[in-house]
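Memo to structure team: turn this sequence into structure tokens by end of day. - J.P.
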Amino acid sequence: MLGVSRDGDVVTIELQREQRRNALNNELVAALRDAVWTAAEDARVIVLTGQGPMFSAGADLSGVYSQEFLDGLLDMLHTIESVPVPVISAINGAALGAGVQIALASDLRVIEPDAYIAIPAAKLGISVDRWTMRRLASLIGGGPARTMLLGAEPITATDAYAFGFANRLGTLADAQKWAKSIAELAPMSLRHMKLVLNDDGTREPATEVQRVALEAAWTSEDAKEGRLARQEKRAAKFLGR
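Reply from structure team:
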């Protein structure tokens, strides 16, 4: 489910659920969280990537609607964001939904030129949490973030780089090479910079109105319809309830 390799002070963690396009389930979420914690104990930089042609297709629909999965996902994202070493996401193929969230929690992002990112929550009748939307907007700007979220439109690698989501265009090898150069920098300096950069207001709690609206989306009939339509490979018919 996960592959972990080391090259000096750089640890690469690879999502290995290729048969499901590296979609996240409870087991993979927990394994990734633990692997990041373990790697951070003595690595200086961590690189995250996906096996095969896709970084991650997001949450596995068989588990995405459970509170257990959502709690585990948020805990894993917070782990990536809070470990005291830089984390680089090397995005291959595509990052969708929770795959984008992994990249958002990372400190740096390298994306292959033919890759893309998307958060198709509105096509499924669900939504994403406040942290995800705020972090996305802080990285790429309000306009492109609205295009991704409200328009449910994908963003190409070229645009992701132009908007500031991706720090570099390149492959996993490029990300690992960059990680090795970062690993030579002062660890305590990087730790402080990471703490300050991630103190961007995204962890502020949602308002009551926002919380209620998020819960309403996840428990709606539209959410059930979105899931069924995805399974049946047809267009969803949302009714707003």
